[in-house]
Design goal:
Helix content of chain A: 25-40%
Oligomer: heterodimer
Distance between the termini of chain A: 62 Å
CATH architecture of the largest domain in chain B: 3-Layer(aba) Sandwich
CATH topology of the largest domain in chain B: Rossmann fold
Strand order of the largest sheet of chain A: 7-15-11-12-14-9-8
Helix content of chain B: 25-40%
Order of helices and strands of chain B: HEHEHEHHEEEHEEEEHH
Strand content of chain A: 25-35%
Number of strands of chain A: 27
Shape of chain B: globular
Strand order of the largest sheet of chain B: 3-2-1-4-6-5
Low-confidence stretches of chain B: 283-288
Largest interface: A-B, 75 and 65 residues
Number of helices of chain A: 16
Number of strands of chain B: 10
Chain lengths: 633, 300
C-alpha cells in the first residue's frame, strides 16, 4: 500500500509539461486551526508555485492580518475572501491548481467550522482522495470524525491522515501512533480503501515535500511523494455504460444529436443501446465530433451521438447497454446531507435534480438520523442544517439511477427549495424501493395519472404556433376531430375565441401578447392536470412565452407544432382580410407586418400548409402522436 | 496533436458545462473579451454544439480603449465563426469622457466595464452569461462557483453562494436574477496555452513578441496604441520588443519584454515565469481584496 519514497524529485517550475499520471482531485479537511490552509500554502511555496507578486502581496497581508508576526502566514494565500482574512478562518471551498513532473493536482480546501460543513461536503463530492488534518496536540475531534464520515459517505475512498504540528509535541513518535490508532477504530466503520498516516509540520515543512531530520523514526513517503504516486480509480471507463442525455441537438429535421458526458463505461459505433426510462432500443449510428466522427469514446468524454432509429430520448434519459441497465423507479432510499437553514419537512414538495432532470419530489420517511460523532442511528422527524439522515424519497415520475456506491454520477442528486431556490440537500442513493412497500401520498390518490388512466389516454398540450393565416386553427380543428373519433378526451383553446372571453381585456402590444399566452398556458396546464389532450392554436410570436408554457406543463407533455407557412403565402390567403388592413396601417402590432415572429428553433413538428393540405398535415400530427406513444394505435 | 488525458478531461468538463447552460437557460450569451481565454471558450462552444452553431450570441463590452489589433481580431473572429456579435459601450460614460487617463482605474472600470456590462445584459434580456475566468487567476475567483448566482442588480454575494456538488448545478433563478457561468474554472494559464497549441486556436498577435512603441509609466511598459495617448513632457516613446500576457484596455495593460514570437516560445517562457499573469493588470492593484469588491458590484 505504501508507495516508494522519491527522495530526489526533479527541480520544479511553475508549470510542467503534460504530466503522465491522471489528474488527482484532492480534498483537504480537518478541524479549525489544524492548519489546512497553512499546509496548502506550504506545498505551493516549497514547490515554488507562489509567484513573486503573489508573495509580495502575501508579505503585506501577513503583517496586516497574519497570526505569525514577521513570518509569512501561508494561510492568507488560500483564504481569498475579505471576511476570511479578517476572521482568520476559511469559510468557503477554495480550489488550487498545481503540477509536478509526476502529476497535476486540483486541491479543494474545505472549511473547518461546523456551520460550513455543507461546503466540506461540496468539496468532497468531486474528490478522489482526502487529506485529513489532525493537530498532534489535540488528537481526533468531533469535526475530524465528522469530516471522515462525510468524505466516506461522498465516496472518497483514499485518505491521508496528516498529523500536523509535530513540532509542538517534540516530534514524539508515541503521540503520532496514538492518533493513528484512534483513527483506525473510526475508519473501521467507514468505506475507505486505503489510509496512509504521515506525521508533518506544515509550518516548518517536515514530511511535506521532503523528509524530516527531526523524525528519524519515521519510514515512509513525504506527503507530496505519496500524492504523486497514489493510485486511485478515476475514469470508470470499465464500469457499465451510463450516458445521461444532456441536450438534444435538432439542427434540422434530418439531424438529431444526443449530447452528454459519459458518466461511466464506453460506447462504440454499432453498439446496441437502450434509453433506460422508456426501454426503447436502438443502435449508435454516429459519434459526431467537430474534427471528424469518432468510432468509440469512454468516460469522462463529452460526446454527441446519433441513433440508427428514431427513438424518443430527451434530457434526463440515461443511455445504457441492454444487459447492464440502471434502476428505474419513483422511490428510493438515500442519505441526505441537509444544507438549508429551513429544516427538512417530510411530505413537503421539493425539486429534485438528478441526471439532468428536474422534477417534484418529497421525502416520505426519515428512517434514521446519523450521529457522525458516534455512528449511532436515532429516530428523527426532521433534519436541520448539517444533519445527515437516511430517508425514503419519492419522485413525481420514475427516474433512472444507480446506487452511489456503483456510480458517483448517476447515484447522486440534489434537492432544491421551490420557494427560495436554495440547494436544500445533497442526496446519495442507496437502493430503489418497490411500490408495495411504499407509503402512498394522499395527493397521489387522485393524481393527473389517475385521471388520465380513467380516460385511457396520455394528457398533452399540442401547441400550434405560426403566422396569422398559416392554417393553425383549421389544422387544429381537424386534429381534434380525428382524436375525438378515436374516443380521446380533448379541449381546444383558440386564439380568437379566448380573446372573446378570458382575455377580452387584452390588446396586441408585446406586453399583452405575453399575458395572453401566460393565461392560456395556465389554463392548458389545468386541463392537462384533468387528463385532457389540449389543442392550443395561437400565433404566440415569442420564443420565451412558448418556452414558459413548455416549462409549466413539463417537457414531455408539450408538443410544439410549428405551422411554417411562408409570410407571402399567408398574405396571399389573408382569410380575414387582416394583412390588407395591417399593411394599410389600420391595424397596429400585427405579427409579420410591424411585429416580429420568432420562429421555433427546435419544435417537435415543423409542417407547412403551403406544401401539404390541412388534412395531410393533421394525419402527420396523428402519426407523430402514435409514434411517441401519446396515442394508442 | 492529440490531447493529453489532462486536457481531454478539462475539455470534456467545459463542453458539459456549456451544454448544461444551454439546456437550462432561456437566453444565454457569451462574454467575448477577445483574449486567449475567450478564444479557448469560443472554440469549446463550437465543439460542444457541432454540427449546429452555438445557440447564443457573443457579447463584447467595448470600453473604446482596447488595442486596435484586438478589435480587428474580434471582427475577423465573429465573421469566421458566423455567430452574432453584440458590441456594447456605455454611451453615457463615453459622453462624459470617462477614460483611463482622466479617471482613477476603479472609477473607469466601474463606468466602462461593470456598468456597461450591466446595461448590455439588461438590454439583451440575458439570464445567463458565460465568462472565461479561471480559478487560478486570483484568490477571490478561487472561491467562486462554476454556476455563480447574481442578484437582480448583478451583485455577487460571496457568503451565501449555493453549494455546488458533483456536477449537478442548481440553475434556478428568481425574478430578474441571472447566472454567470465559467466553463474554464478548473483550467490554469498553462492549460490554456497548451490547449491553444494542441487545437491550433487563433489568438490576437499581441501575445507574441514584436517591436512595439512603448512608454515606461509607473514601472510598467505601456503601449502607445493610438494618438489619444497623452504623453507627459518627460516621457519618450521608445521601440521595444514586447508582448502581453493578458489583454485589456491598452492604457491599463503592462507589456513584458520578450523574444517569444511563437506559441512554443511563449509556453517555454511561461514555464519559467516568476510573476502571475494578472501582474500586468493595473486595475487589480488598488488593494488586496479589490477583485472581490469589484465582483460584488457586478464586475465579471
Amino acid at each position: 500500500m505504501t508507495a516508494p519514497f522519491i527522495a530526489d524529485a526533479a527541480i520544479l517550475s511553475k508549470a510542467q509539461p503534460n504530466p503522465p499520471r491522471p489528474t488527482l482531485r484532492v480534498l483537504t479537511c480537518g478541524s479549525v486551526d489544524d492548519g489546512k490552509s497553512t499546509l496548502v500554502g506550504r506545498l505551493l511555496y516549497e514547490r515554488q508555485l507562489i509567484f513573486d507578486d503573489q508573495l509580495a502581496a502575501l508579505r503585506s497581508d501577513s503583517l496586516r492580518h497574519g497570526a505569525l508576526g514577521e513570518e509569512i502566514d501561508f494561510a492568507l494565500q488560500v483564504d481569498g475572501l475579505e471576511a476570511e482574512r479578517e476572521q482568520g478562518i476559511t469559510i468557503d471551498v477554495a480550489y488550487r491548481y498545481f503540477s509536478t513532473p509526476a502529476r497535476s493536482f486540483i486541491m479543494a480546501d474545505a472549511p473547518g467550522h461546523e456551520q460550513y460543513t455543507r461546503n466540506m461536503a461540496t468539496a468532497a463530492s468531486n474528490a478522489e482522495l482526502a487529506i485529513l488534518l489532525v493537530d498532534a496536540r489535540k488528537g481526533l475531534l468531533t469535526q475530524t470524525r465528522r469530516h471522515a464520515t462525510i468524505a466516506s459517505l461522498l465516496g472518497v475512498r483514499h485518505i491521508v491522515l496528516a498529523v500536523n504540528k509535530m513540532d509542538l509535541v517534540d516530534y514524539d513518535q508515541a503521540a503520532f501512533e496514538r492518533i493513528v490508532g484512534e483513527f483506525e477504530s473510526v475508519a473501521a466503520s467507514l468505506a475507505f480503501r486505503s489510509v496512509q498516516a504521515i506525521p508533518i509540520s506544515a509550518r516548518y515543512g517536515d514530511n511535506v515535500v521532503a523528509g524530516s531530520a527531526d523524525m528519524p523514526w519515521r519510514d515512509g513517503p513525504s506527503l507530496l511523494a505519496y500524492l504523486e504516486n497514489v493510485d486511485v480509480e478515476t475514469d470508470g471507463a470499465d464500469a457499465p455504460l451510463r450516458l445521461p442525455v444532456q441536450w438534444v441537438n435538432r439542427r434540422s429535421d434530418a439531424f438529431r444529436g444526443f449530447a452528454g458526458a459519459i458518466a461511466s463505461g464506453r460506447i462504440q459505433v454499432g453498439d446496441e443501446i437502450v434509453a433506460a426510462a422508456s426501454g426503447r432500443k436502438t443502435k449508435i449510428a454516429r459519434i459526431v465530433a467537430m474534427g471528424g466522427d469518432l468510432f468509440s469514446a469512454a468516460a469522462p468524454d463529452s460526446v454527441m451521438v446519433t441513433f440508427a432509429d428514431e427513438i424518443d430520448a430527451s434530457r434526463g434519459d440515461v443511455l445504457c447497454h441492454p444487459t447492464t441497465r440502471p434502476n428505474v423507479a419513483d422511490q428510493f432510499a438515500a442519505h441526505l446531507i441537509w444544507m438549508s437553514d429551513d429544516s427538512l419537512l417530510p411530505g413537503r414538495s421539493y425539486l429534485i435534480k438528478i441526471n439532468g432532470r428536474s422534477l417534484a419530489a418529497s421525502v416520505t420517511d426519515i428512517k434514521h438520523k446519523l450521529d457522525v460523532d458516534t455512528g449511532a442511528k436515532s429516530a428523527a422527524k426532521t433534519l436541520s442544517l448539517n444533519e445527515i439522515g437516511f430517508c425514503n424519497v419519492a419522485t413525481a415520475a420514475p427516474v433512472a439511477f444507480d446506487s452511489y456506491d456503483e456510480n458517483r454520477t448517476t447515484g447522486a442528486f440534489i434537492l432544491i427549495d421551490r420557494f427560495t431556490n436554495a440547494t436544500a440537500a445533497a442526496g446519495i442513493i442507496a437502493f430503489p424501493l418497490r411500490r408495495a412497500t411504499n407509503i402512498h401520498l394522499q395527493e397521489q390518490s387522485v393524481s393527473k395519472a389517475t385521471r388520465a388512466r380513467l380516460k385511457h389516454q396520455t394528457p398533452a398540450v399540442l401547441w400550434f404556433t405560426g403566422l396569422s393565416g398559416a392554417g393553425k386553427s383549421t389544422i387544429a380543428n381537424l386534429v381534434e376531430s380525428k382524436l375525438v373519433e378515436r374516443h380521446a378526451h380533448t379541449l381546444m383553446l383558440d386564439g380568437d375565441n379566448v380573446r372573446h372571453g378570458l382575455n377580452k381585456d387584452l390588446g396586441f402590444t408585446e406586453a399583452d401578447r405575453v399575458e395572453n399566452i401566460r393565461r392560456v398556458g395556465e389554463v392548458a396546464k389545468l386541463m392537462v392536470e384533468a387528463g385532457l389532450i389540449v389543442l392550443c392554436a395561437f400565433i404566440s410570436p415569442f420564443r420565451a412565452e412558448r418556452r414558459m408554457v413548455r416549462s409549466l406543463v413539463g417537457e414531455q407533455e408539450f408538443i410544439e407544432i410549428f405551422i411554417d407557412t411562408p409570410l407571402d403565402v399567408c398574405k396571399e390567403r389573408d382569410p380575414k382580410g387582416l394583412y390588407r388592413r395591417a399593411l394599410a396601417g389600420e391595424i397596429k402590432n400585427f405579427t409579420g407586418v410591424d411585429q416580429p415572429y420568432e420562429a421555433p428553433e427546435s419544435p417537435e413538428l415543423r409542417l407547412s400548409s403551403a406544401e401539404h393540405s390541412a388534412e395531410a398535415i393533421a394525419d402527420q400530427i396523428i402519426a407523430y402522436l402514435e409514434a411517441n406513444k401519446l396515442l394508442s394505435v | 496533436m492529440p490531447l493529453t488525458p489532462h486536457l481531454r478531461r478539462l475539455e470534456a468538463e467545459a463542453v458539459f458545462i456549456l451544454r448544461e447552460a444551454v439546456a437550462e437557460f432561456r437566453r444565454p450569451v457569451m462574454l467575448y473579451s477577445i483574449g486567449k481565454d475567450s478564444s479557448v471558450m469560443l472554440h469549446l462552444a463550437l465543439k460542444a454544439f457541432f454540427p449546429a452553431k452555438p445557440p447564443f450570441p457573443l457579447l463584447h463590452v467595448d470600453t473604446t480603449w482596447k488595442f486596435r489589433e484586438m478589435i480587428a481580431f474580434r471582427d475577423q473572429t465573429a465573421a469566421r465563426v458566423e455567430m452574432d456579435l453584440i458590441v456594447h459601450t456605455n454611451e453615457d460614460g463615453r459622453k462624459r469622457g470617462v477614460s483611463p487617463f482622466t479617471c482613477s482605474s476603479s472609477a473607469y472600470t466601474q463606468a466602462m466595464k461593470t456598468e456597461a456590462l450591466r446595461q448590455a445584459l439588461n438590454e439583451g434580456g440575458f439570464d445567463a452569461a458565460f465568462g472565461g475566468a479561471r480559478r487560478d487567476e486570483e484568490k477571490s475567483r478561487a472561491k467562486e462557483r462554476i454556476f455563480s448566482h447574481r442578484t437582480a442588480s448583478h451583485g455577487w454575494d460571496p457568503k451565501s453562494q449555493r453549494p455546488e456538488l458533483w456536477r449537478i448545478f442548481n440553475t434556478r433563478l428568481g425574478a430578474g436574477e441571472t447566472m454567470r457561468i465559467f466553463p474554464l474554472s478548473n483550467w490554469t494559464e498553462t492549460d490554456v496555452w497548451d490547449y491553444i497549441a494542441a487545437e491550433n486556436i487563433p489568438v490576437v498577435p499581441l501575445y507574441l513578441a514584436k517591436e512595439r512603441p512603448i512608454v515606461r509609466r509607473n514601472g510598467a511598459y505601456i503601449m502607445v496604441d493610438d494618438e489619444r495617448f497623452p504623453l507627459a513632457p518627460e516621457e519618450v516613446v521608445e521601440t521595444r520588443r514586447v508582448r502581453f500576457r493578458t489583454l485589456g484596455c491598452y492604457p491599463l495593460t503592462g507589456a513584458i519584454e520578450s523574444e517569444a514570437a511563437t506559441l512554443e516560445a511563449i509556453i517555454a517562457e511561461m514555464r519559467h515565469a516568476s510573476t502571475s499573469e494578472r501582474q500586468g493588470r493595473l486595475i487589480d492593484f488598488d488593494e488586496s481584496a479589490s477583485m472581490e469588491r469589484k465582483k460584488r458590484e457586478g464586475y465579471f
